[in-house]
Amino acid sequence: MKRSGLGSATGIVCAAVMAVGIVALVGNEPAKAARISNPVAEFAGIDKITGRITSFDVYIDETVQFGALQVTPKVCYSRDETEAQKVDGFVEVDEITLDRKIRRIFSGWMFADSPALNAVEHAIYDVWLTGCKQASDVPAPAKTN
């Protein structure tokens, strides 16, 4: 029995039509989670000598001292409640040395889902991002004109 090739051509056309239909249904834009910029970053830190873990809030572009470290978040992003939370922030951490000099020991992204990935590890203190939020019990810093 001889095949005319019509069946394979029809199959290719059907597959192409189905692919076009799927692209039309899904769209050619990838789905993106809405990124929310938050005014407050939440951190946790441990003093390895005492074993005490402290949670603290820091407003964006403000600096808070934790032991000999100064923590300054530059941005803190989360997703809206309909998305899986992926909290990340860009953070700068400086150390105040024994001779009172300030030395940058960390500048980069921290991820709340993976605290060990980019946590600040210091001989005495560790600091990591735990979340972002819109408001804090800590009073906002005074605005300077």
Automatic annotation (TrEMBL):
Under the heading InterPro entries, the entry gives: DUF2155 (IPR019225)
For this UniProt record, give its keywords in alphabetical order, as a comma-separated list.
Membrane, Transmembrane, Transmembrane helix
The record lists the membrane-crossing segments as 6-27
Protein known as: DUF2155 domain-containing protein
Read off the lineage from the record.
Answer: Bacteria, Pseudomonadati, Pseudomonadota, Alphaproteobacteria, Hyphomicrobiales
